[in-house]
């Protein structure tokens, strides 16, 4: 028995089954729905401009697409690391199990990556890629010439056709984004043996929290990238995104409150165990971090900004604090669902204990590395495919 498992055994309370001493789904499984949620939320931000014609958020359209792609490329990593044998990950495609919700992720992921995101990014950037391929030389020029995929037609008719393709793909991509993240909540909500997970609201709650985290992420990256580029964030864009973040958050809070009210109203078997779980075992991560600092405080900050009594320079900092707290709060929600649901014994008479190692295969360091990797990929994507309407100086062509 490992030292961690032995230490966890010392903290076990009440009566649990022997196989519940070890928490099988670690922090990596909490990171997985967090990243997929950011992907879905970022794509929804992009669809605001493309489908719903919200012109104010246009400066973030391409940035949201690249953000979604960067995080989507890293979405399978927590699962692959959790498997312990990464080569087995490909079996999900080579030996398809159509009745497995978990196996369905492979097909949803492939569809979303290849058909939705890459297609939309290619056709949206195609005109610029052709221009950059003509302007740049050397390695960078070679990259753009490869990215043209041999299609050099930039006539007006061809560009109009590109836009039609982008509009169609965006429309198809919106329900795909909902499916990509909603199914995670579907998996948890389908576990009838666990009262903390078993809820028909779970997929909807996961979807709305994904919207909240994705909008917060794009808004935070947009403000931060504006400072890095030395330009002022667009006021209308920032305020509009913050408004959508506020509305999504209020809906998300309402859904989560409805789920809790349902648990307390029905008081089904295991209700007393749920009360102890909330008031003791996950009190800090649920009540303090998720509900108070991760939900109520950001909503209050966004409401204060919405009043308009502060100038934009002050509102920017309110948005930064609100988005950072939002991202922390949504991760706390994933943590409380994944870890909290496993702490609660199926006997409803005891609790196991989770110890997160700092180093090792399923540790804090691996989780932080996986969560940092999308930002590295995003920086590379932004360098290759600048999403700004006015490129920064290091993004302008250097004729060689």
From TrEMBL:
UniProt-annotated location(s): Cell membrane
Keyword Amino-acid biosynthesis annotated: no
Entry keyword annotation includes Membrane: yes
Transmembrane residue ranges: 25-48, 60-81, 101-123, 165-189, 201-223, 244-265, 285-305, 317-344, 364-382
GO CC entries: plasma membrane
Domain of life: Archaea
Gene3D superfamilies listed in its UniProt record: Formate dehydrogenase/DMSO reductase domain (1.20.1630.10)
Pfam families registered for this protein in UniProt: NrfD
Membrane topology according to the record: Multi-pass membrane protein
Keywords in alphabetical order: Cell membrane, Membrane, Transmembrane, Transmembrane helix
Family: Belongs to the NrfD family.
Protein name as catalogued: Polysulphide reductase NrfD
Lineage: Archaea, Methanobacteriati, Methanobacteriota, Archaeoglobi, Archaeoglobales
